[in-house]
Design brief:
alpha/beta, Rossmann fold, 14 helices, globular
Length: 381
């Protein structure tokens, strides 16, 4: 029988044993969604720094695996196809038992992730503080837990977990990036040069919203914002991924005959996106987006973000470092909300029940966003 790396571990808020053998195989569990996977990067980097000889794997859904799978990423990924039902669970369990991790680190905090940890057979199962789980019942799977997060932001939960599993990593040295290699960085720079519009004015990258997302901003508002910026001498790149491709094509047909507005329709590839955002950050660009996975990828790459906020609580899921109404020394990001936001905002709901629809987003005027952006971009020059 395989000897576990960590036997009966203490519970949260209790010290770990003084002598803990070095783990050989560590499984990090953060299966979804894109923004949450991006948030888990500090945990991965902390484990890599603290246990350089260990083999690290990541349990993740296939659609997000590319983001973490660079040349210097985990040695392997265990893919959980959530639409495959029982077959996905059986395959995951078989593969994990064959790999035999010593230690699982649950960075997700729900019943599904706890089942993956238990299915692995690992002797040590670490995770978030019970108060930071979205489904606290799953915390019963843990052998030890981190201290509660220092604040409400999702990233603060990840930082608490990173400190718990890698206490030897010095505070203030946390890494949030995707460890792009030289070739990826070159590719990002080439993509930026290809897609950014010509000229010298400040560049705003507008990431469109997916159809039907209650957190989204109307596409006609994005178009009005683009026109307002170029009228003041700026440049705009309208960016859409697979989920926003339809909207991207509509805007590419309607916002035409303006050389300072460019369109990148249907961008694909998560590491390509990260490399592009990294190049955009180096070039002094600025992202305008709603609460979405690409928003958090951009923030992790150091690209300043203006978040168009409505139903979500930006204190919990806004770009990190946590943003305010204005950029500051603590954060280059900022939050913009409707001037007269409804009393129900933020509601955290995925379906709007307001009689007039998602007025917290439809009521966010393009000129209000433009004014905020002018102030934001001026402050970071």
């Amino acid at each position: 029988m395989r000897r576990p790396f960590y036997g009966a571990a203490p519970r949260a808020s209790q010290p770990l044993p003084a002598a803990v053998p070095s783990p050989e195989r560590i499984l990090l569990i953060r299966m979804s969604h894109l923004g949450d996977v991006a948030h888990a990067m500090p945990v991965f980097h902390a484990l890599r720094a603290a246990y350089p000889a260990a083999e690290i794997a990541w349990a993740i859904q296939p659609e997000f695996a590319e983001l973490v799978g660079g040349a210097r990423g985990p040695e392997r990924t265990f893919l959980f196809g959530r639409r495959d039902g029982l077959r996905a669970w059986m395959r995951m369990r078989t593969e994990l038992l064959a790999w035999a991790p010593d230690w699982t680190v649950d960075a997700q905090g729900n019943v599904k992730s706890s089942m993956v940890a238990l299915a692995s057979g690992a002797g040590r199962r670490s995770g978030l503080a019970r108060s930071d789980w979205t489904e606290p019942f799953g915390a019963n799977s843990l052998t030890d837990a981190a201290e509660p997060a220092a604040g409400p932001h999702a990233m603060q939960r990840m930082l608490a977990l990173a400190r718990h599993v890698a206490p030897q990593v010095a505070a203030g040295t946390e890494r949030f990036d995707f460890d792009l290699d030289t070739e990826e960085s070159k590719r990002g720079a080439a993509l930026f040069a290809r897609h950014a519009p010509p000229g010298d004015g400040p560049l705003w990258i507008l990431h469109l919203s997916s159809h039907g997302d209650v957190r989204g901003w109307p596409h006609e508002h994005f178009a009005a914002l683009a026109r307002a910026h170029v009228a003041e001498g700026g440049r705009v790149l309208v960016l859409s991924g697979p989920d926003e491709e339809g909207a991207g094509r509509v805007l590419a047909r309607t916002v035409v005959d303006e050389p300072r507005i460019a369109h990148w329709v249907g961008q694909r590839g998560l590491r390509e996106l990260a490399a592009f955002f990294d190049a955009a950050a180096r070039a002094g660009a600025h992202l305008v987006a709603c609460d979405s996975g690409p928003t958090h990828v951009a923030a992790a790459c150091g690209l300043p973000v203006t978040l168009l906020a409505g139903p979500q609580d930006a204190r919990r899921t806004g770009p990190w470092p946590a943003a305010g109404a204005r950029p500051s020394a603590a954060s280059p990001h900022r939050i913009v909300q409707a001037e007269e936001a409804p009393i129900c905002s933020p509601c955290l709901a995925r379906v709007c029940t307001h009689p007039a629809g998602p007025v917290c987003m439809t009521g966010l005027a393009p000129l209000r966003v433009a004014a905020a952006l002018i102030e934001a971009t001026a402050s970071v020059r």
